[in-house]
Amino acid sequence: MSVLTAVGSVLRRLSRAPAFPAAAIAMLALGIGLTVAMVCTVDGVLLRGLPVPDGERLVAVVADNPAQQVARAQLTVAEAEQLARATAGFEALGYFQWTGVSVLDAGHAREIPAQFVSPGFFAALGVQPLLGRVPTDEDIRAGLPLAVLSHEEWQRAFGGDAGVIGRRLDTIGHAPLEVVGVMPPAIDAITGDAGVWTALLPNELPQDGARRLDLRILQVIGRLQAGTSLAQANAALAAQLATLRAAHGLDDASGWRLHAYSQLDLLVGGARGALWGAFALACMVLLIACANVAILLDARQAARRRELAVMQAIGASRERLRGQLLLELTLLGAIALALGVALAHVGIALLRGLAEGSVPRVDGIVMDWRVFAVAAVLALTAPLCAVLGGSLRLPAAPAEAVRGGGKGVIGGARTQRLLPAAAMALSTASLVAALGVGLGLWRLQRVEPGFRADGVHALTLFRESLGTDSGTGGPPEWTRFSDEVLQRLAALPGADGVALTTVAPLVQIGGASADVRTSGGADDAPVQAAVRRVSPGYRTLLGVPLLAGRDFGADDRVGSEPVAIVNRTLARRLFGEASPLGRTIDLPLARSGRATCRIVGIVEDIRNDGLRAAPAPEVMVPFAQAPRVAMTFLLRSTPGLQGVDAAMAAALWSVDARQSITRQFALDERLAAELRPARFFARVVGAFAFAALLLAVLGVYAVASLQQRRRVGEFGLRLAIGATPARLARTILRDSLLVSAAGIAAGLGLAAAGARLLGPLRAVGDVDLPSALALGLGAMGAAAALAALLPALRAARVPPMEALRDG
Known about the structure:
By secondary structure, the protein is of the alpha+beta class. It contains 27 helices and 23 strands. Strands 1, 2, 3, 4, 5, 6, 7, 8, 9, 10, 11 and 12 form a twelve-stranded mixed beta sheet that branches. The protein has a six-stranded mixed β-barrel with strand order 15-16-21-18-20-19. A four-stranded antiparallel beta sheet has the order 14-22-13-23. The longest helix is centred in the last third of the chain and has 44 residues, at 667-710. The model is unreliable at 400-411 and 465-472 (pLDDT under 50).
């Protein structure tokens, strides 16, 4: 018999009883589709290297302080410069600072997010420009006004003109920049939304010793030498830090350490564990589907027992029959593969849409030949499960099988118990994981950020990028400008309050942290705290409770005593249970050195680093006493007011039409963005857990139905000798529930033992494992009972004579 003839024969046989192939193909396609979609996601986000040469050698150097519970902070100027001189194990190393460059666009100033870079930055990045070149280290040291554009900025400002090299980028308040290169679009995932790179001039950094040692404002990237491990690089960083401390007579009491992390790991962040967890759940769905298919195959073989026995009796060899059965399974797998791949394409599109803004590198989630090969391997799991489950066994005694009809069992009772129990175990574990994530999201949504975000609109700018009409600039002008903008904003219709800060809550770019010391406490370990310069009314606008003392007032300006307000966490870290009111602290605020500030107030903690992070130490000082180029104006509007962003921009330009705007956003939208990753993973994990539960329940139902049909004769006899229908129903229900209970117990144990596997899912919130186990037990028990109830009721309704006749 030719292959085509055999395939046709199998297809005709399957079409005569379409329920079995349809169910088997649907379950396998679902499992394959979900798994392949997650394979593509894991591959595109986690496994593919960075779009730079030898991307695995690209690292970020950050500062950690376990004693102060500070992780991955920026570096001080002194630390960055020490590393840039020469660090063993690094092929290149450079640092940069986020800022902005203002240009005129359609009559108004437009700010381009910029990275001002040091020598070594481009060598560490290791990316060849799409057009032109990158500035050399000598160009950067000389401070030449050269610029490299991002692909997006090249398209926006110059329309993608290939002749852009040598053109001028006319900036406001700075010398024109000559365009020498254009970067490829692929590096956007590494460099963020930077639109231009230019030299970081030494005079733009703090010059006094205190600020160079305490103020953390620089980010560092490096490229490891070939063969250098992260452990070796970290040892070299520790040696450099020790050298710096020795040069300045510092001890190790501060607890700061420098660490190199893979740039890919930092980019992926908490999504790594959550994606692997979701991938594991998708694999569970596939395994449950395979178990169900094996149950269906076993049932079908039992139903065909007489047919197979007859074929053996008239001369068909056992090898030929096994070949036909294996071909049947292979065809089912091939059809499921085609449908699964189509389902995976749909799933990938849905995942990319849901993951936008929640997971990095979503553009890399694509299906290629490697993923298709994985799908093909997965499609072969059905024949493998069938072989392992005994579905290719043939009747050992054909004559007796012919006489006995089609009610016998080929696969054996053990298969009927183990497979549904295993499916229930996997489903229980996946459901517990989903419930844990859901409970974590529920708790995260109820975390109080410490401020009122509703109705608050923010406008951020960098004043230094512009300068002034007179060309003077500096702190006095920054104060005058900010006061005038606040007055114009307060006069807007619908404005319920205005305030100024250097960095808005939940915003990381533009922030600064520094070592805070108690005055006169030279032996006391400093505390790293975020430094926020604010105007009077900032606390009131955001609804932050004042715990003690007073707020800033109009008299807190240059010339008056420097004052500060600390949050609860910083007060406790510095002074314990003692009151900090009236005490003084040293802060690196002034360009000439540290400033001594008297604490006049204590406020409640704000979760400025995100809802999942514990409140960090923070100190606020009056903006008028320590003005800075970074300014974020906040306005609380009446509910439902439209056009607030446009009105704020118009008010700003009424003060200075050439001032550029870095960004505008609503604070409640930023707060919602904090929940977006958690909601994404909760939806994905919940969908996979629902699929696993549905398939497991179908498996329990299938086994209970098979038992009910195979025991029809037995039930008829028992009814004839006086058994009640309710007792027969209880028998089916009991047998099914015993199998389900064993699976549920194993699943709960698997979930409890695999609590570490749930750990990565804490990226979406704290996982409440005990509550998840309790809810999972209740849900799975109810589902198992419902799945077995219908076959049990059917067994109770069978008339005794009919049961005896069919049995």
